[in-house]
Amino acid sequence: MAVEYSCCSTNFFIHILIIVFLVLFAGLMSGLTLGLMSMSLVDLEVLAKSGTPKDRKHAAKILPVVKKQHLLLCTLLICNAAAMEALPIFLDSLVTAWGAILISVTLILLFGEIIPQSVCSRYGLAIGATVAPFVRVLVWFCFPVAYPISKLLDYLLGHGHVALFRRAELKTLVDFHGNEAGKGGELTHDETTIIAGALELSEKTARDAMTPLSEIFSIDINAKLDKNLMDLILEKGHSSDSLL
């Protein structure tokens, strides 16, 4: 049953502030779940070492928080669920039961899911770095509940998945970064060719890179280097074979 409050009463405004806080808090947890958990440790380490100065600073702040991925995931989901479950309780004191359900679903869907996840999917690195100290506090606050669940997930699923590329995937990635691919890459055609060739070296044999002796034009060591021999050498030309 809804409790009637005067629009000017203190309790009414307190409930409104709590509802706004819960919606924003749930939205932040939802956005961070997508923004932080979508970043692999490899991506963050690459950014921390070779990104722009701003990206290096952001990645350095996020790395300690993201290292224990399952603990972070459990913390964010627990906080998000707590905020969403508490919202109808405070709405129920202002409106009817069905109204509380309708308003809470609308608020959570729009301001707690769609908008935060859209923003964090694009600016997850900057937002994650900004709220990293706050997330650490939440991790410690939820530690008694989140830690056992995270250890269970570590046991069942492993401590984490490191997204390293295989040779074929690296070649495709290099091709995408070439300026000929039209995706904004800066690598030239020669650079992508050299990198792709270097990645294939372990799969090549000497036969793949060298010319067979039967196809080689050779000169006897005792041959006289006269005009006729020079003309013959010029006529045969030289090899244009490349190791790569």
From TrEMBL:
Question: Looking at the UniProt record for this protein, which Gene Ontology cellular component terms does it annotate, in alphabetical order?
Answer: cytoplasm; membrane
* Tree of life domain: Eukaryota
Gene Ontology BP annotations: intracellular manganese ion homeostasis; magnesium ion homeostasis
What sequence ranges are listed for the domain CNNM transmembrane? 8-191
Give the protein name, as stated in the record.
Answer: CNNM transmembrane domain-containing protein
- Residue intervals passing through the bilayer: 12-34, 97-116, 123-147
Q: Which Pfam families does this UniProt record tie to the protein?
A: CNNM
From which residue to which does the signal peptide run? none
Keywords annotated in UniProt: Membrane, Transmembrane, Transmembrane helix
